[in-house]
Amino acid sequence: MESHEPYVQTRLTFSLWDYGVFAAMLLGSTGIGLFYGLFRGGQKTSDDFFTGGRSMSAVPVGLSLAASFMSAVQVLGVPAEAYRYGAKFLQMCIGQTLNSLITAYFFMPVFYRLGITSTYQYLAMRFSRSVQLCGTIQFLVGTMLYTGIVIYAPALILNQVTGLDIWASLFSTGAICTLYTSLGGMKAVIWTDVFQVLVMLSGFFAIAIRGILLVGGTSEVLNIASNYSRINFGDFDPDPRRRYTFWTFVCGSTFLWLSMYGVNQAQVQRYISCKTENQAKLAIMVNQVALCVIVSSAVVCGIVMFTFYLNCDPLLAGYVSAPDQYIPYMVLEIFEYYPGIPGLFLACAYSGTLSTASTSINAMAAVTVEDLIKPRMANIPVKTLIYISKGLSFLYGCACITVAALSSLLGGGVLQGSFTIMGVISGPLLGAFILGMFTSSCNTAGVFAGLAVGFSLSLWVAVGGTLYPPSPEMMGVLPIYAEHCPLYNTSHGIIYGSPPLKNITTAFERTTISEEFYSLSYLYYGTLGTLCTIVSGIIISHLTGPTKRETIAHGLLFWDLVGDSKSVENKKDSE
Question: Where are the transmembrane segments (predicted)?
């Protein structure tokens, strides 16, 4: 087998053609927002702004659901994870599939038939106003942090690899996202998501096809990947400290994705915008197909990237300084003489950013209106509420840009960082909704105690895992090689990043707790928070006096819907 030896290139930056392709994507997204905000009659009510008048069909909503959490963090992070840990990352689709089934058949029917806009209204109906406020605040804080990473991390990574101006990319994408979200509302967000998911897939396909051709064909890619342990689906190690195993994806990622799709405002707000309950269920299934295609495409890119850099790993050679920089570095190398194609990748990465940020901004505005403003201003005129909704979208967009600008301490590992935030904050909230929907005995004291315990424990482990990261051997990092690398030479334009330091010893001596407890895979953070919330909530509820089922309004428990043939066909008729 003749190994591929990457050539040293003279250009590691984007051309005018690349920026032109990127600008076209931004203009397309803005145009969709202007179309729905100005040329389709705008929005007559806050319900139009936040849920599209509950008149959307399954396919665009499903694609929007898929795009909403497949941000630039995933565009950059998933190929890097597949590069370092192998094709077993494809098993993430198992957790996503389980999540979609549970969401479609257990959580969605409850939210849809209640006719609510904010998921946290459910917590007020089932428990109390104070629990609702707790959930709302947790959601707002977590979403703000997550969106900040989503906006800033890709800008930072692309700056380090290509010299792309970090502030220009940050403010341009943030401002455009804020503009079309504020103007067009939910319909603009959904249709721009459809456009952006197509751009994302186009970028992945271009990278995979070009990389496969350069390596020598599909069979050569598979042969190299198999010989170097990258085709590794048989890892059934139950050790929760292993970063990725079959059980990590089945048990860990299922809870993680369920916290993001089953009860997270950003996603619930989308599927309740469908015109019927069956359309909402179909949208979740369309979302699942799209998620699997996106994840599979990203994993293929990661495996192709490993075979391309088989004997000269860019990280070991010092050409990049973090694994998340692999994919943009490769794009600039393999498409050096194809002007405009690197711009397609840039559009691919930032399409993910725009879709996630717009989703978050719209969701934060929705919960603020429904949970904080309407209860205190019940008689507010409809037109005034529309202006408030648009203003909140604008303010939250500016706030997310500000958080992104303050995220300068963020290093590599953006995929883990984003999933950690969602797991720590959304995991306990998932536990609270499970307590409300599936147990009749849980009371307000129980859910408060559960949230406190679940959040505290998951935060403790996440912070510990950040301060005392597990060793690469414990995580299961696969070998990488740099046997045939040319000498590190800044005269050829390879000036971003520095050669990695070797044989660094840590300043602390690992304790048993850091070796065992803090080494928990980050995909289990959400599971830990959810289970601790449920167990603590049930125990405290029984100690303080469980709630009697007859005091719970019909429709708040999932079991009320079992055998109930009623399906709300058009939510507008019920309001």
Answer: 20-39, 59-77, 89-112, 133-154, 166-183, 195-213, 244-263, 284-310, 394-413, 419-438, 445-468, 522-540
